[in-house]
Specification:
Length: 383
């Protein structure tokens, strides 16, 4: 499976995950160091795992939003570690054998779920760490393709045929019975354009799955996800349940105040449309009655095709959009192109898919980052 997916992407020769392209180059060099630093922090008090209450002193998390929420709730009771390097984009990342072997010092890992952790299945059979899906109570959004895209119809047709990209691979395997034939068979069945689209969808849905994985970007979901973390920590360490619940309560109060404030603000707006280069704000849009327009094929790819750009400009004009949002830490080039055409501004939004040194050093909270996004979105639509 893994091999095939990689081969497919390579064979297509299109850009890898948009997010991958966006990690600042200097962060790459730190990967090893950070991993080492993580490992050094591993508590020596390793204990034999039991099926009952957890006795290890650390828990793993998958990436920044989950890491930060867990840290806030666990406080000083658990060492909170990150499976991926927090400073690099976790999409498309695959753990090494060593990464997986290192997991033995914790009994559980909080993950986002909703297909965000593409490496989830590579742990099956090689680690018995329990993965706790923090989005288990979130109503997931089906992978959407409501972006400006010339091949939109193809995408839908493609989706109907296969229902989901994971299934697609499975179905494909059954048909071809041969990994090597995968790409060829794929080409025979579909047209080249559809191959392209398929890759684009991977690029933007990250999950290769059937749901939009970006649950954490809506504070309502973040709240539900924090609750799962608090409940689980209370379950494995009942002696400190009050402590975890108290820490959760602080997050809850902050997020509820934020949700109330922006529900009221957004309700009063006439213009509820916002345009983003990265289709990551579907949950936020749903929860606040907003309309996300995503220039999916633009994201960080610097050579966005002219037709997509033109469609985006037309749509933005029709909707009176004055701000083009791009992904913080990523390229703003495509957003700039449209913004110039429209006389609009470009403003970064934070997807929290990787953290900056500043955020890590200051322990910038999940709540602060979400609030930043809400305020920037509000300001753009209130103009
Ligand atoms: Zn994303």
């Amino acid at each position: 499976m893994k091999y095939k997916k990689m081969a497919l992407v390579l064979a297509l020769g299109v850009g890898l995950s948009a997010c991958n392209n966006q990690k600042p180059a200097e962060n790459n060099a730190n990967t090893e160091v950070s991993q080492e630093a993580n490992n050094d922090k591993v508590d020596e008090k390793k204990v034999e795992k039991t099926n009952q209450n957890m006795e290890s002193t650390s828990v793993y998390t998958s990436f920044y939003p989950i890491y930060n929420l867990t840290k806030q709730i666990a406080g000083d009771k658990f060492e909170v570690k990150s499976f991926t390097n927090l400073k690099t984009e976790s999409h498309g990342w695959e753990p090494s054998a060593k990464d997986i072997a290192d997991l033995t010092d914790s009994q559980l890992m909080f993950i986002n779920g909703a297909g965000m952790e593409e490496w989830e299945e590579s742990l099956e059979g090689s680690s018995d760490i329990e993965l706790v899906n923090t989005s288990e109570n979130v109503e997931l959004i089906k992978g959407s393709h409501d972006h400006v895209h010339e091949h939109e119809d193809h995408d839908h047709a493609h989706e109907e045929e296969n229902h989901d990209h994971e299934d697609h691979d499975h179905a494909h395997e059954e048909e071809s019975h041969d990994h090597e034939d995968h790409d060829h068979a794929h080409e025979e069945e579909n047209h080249d354009h559809e191959d392209q689209d398929h890759a684009h969808e991977h690029e933007h849905s990250h999950s290769h799955g059937e749901f939009d994985p970006h649950t954490w970007l809506s504070p309502k979901n973040g709240l539900a996800q924090a609750k799962v973390i608090a409940d689980k920590l209370s379950e494995i360490d009942p002696a400190n349940k009050d402590y975890y619940m108290e820490n959760y309560k602080k997050i809850e109060d902050e997020l509820n105040a934020m949700i109330d404030e922006y529900t009221e603000k957004f309700e009063k707006l006439e213009n509820k449309n916002f345009l983003v280069s990265h289709q990551a704000f579907g949950y936020l849009a749903r929860d606040f009655g907003l309309n996300q327009i995503a220039l999916t094929s633009l994201t960080s790819t610097e050579d966005a095709d002219a037709k997509t750009l033109k469609e985006a400009v037309d749509e933005a004009k029709n909707l009176g959009i004055n701000t083009i949002f791009y992904e913080m830490g990523g390229s703003s080039k495509s957003a700039d192109t449209i913004a110039n055409e429209l006389g609009a501004n470009t403003v970064p939004l934070n997807t929290l898919e990787f953290a900056t040194d500043e955020e890590l050093n200051n322990d910038t909270t999940y709540q602060d980052l979400i609030k930043y996004n809400l305020e920037e979105l509000y300001k753009s639509m209130a103009k």
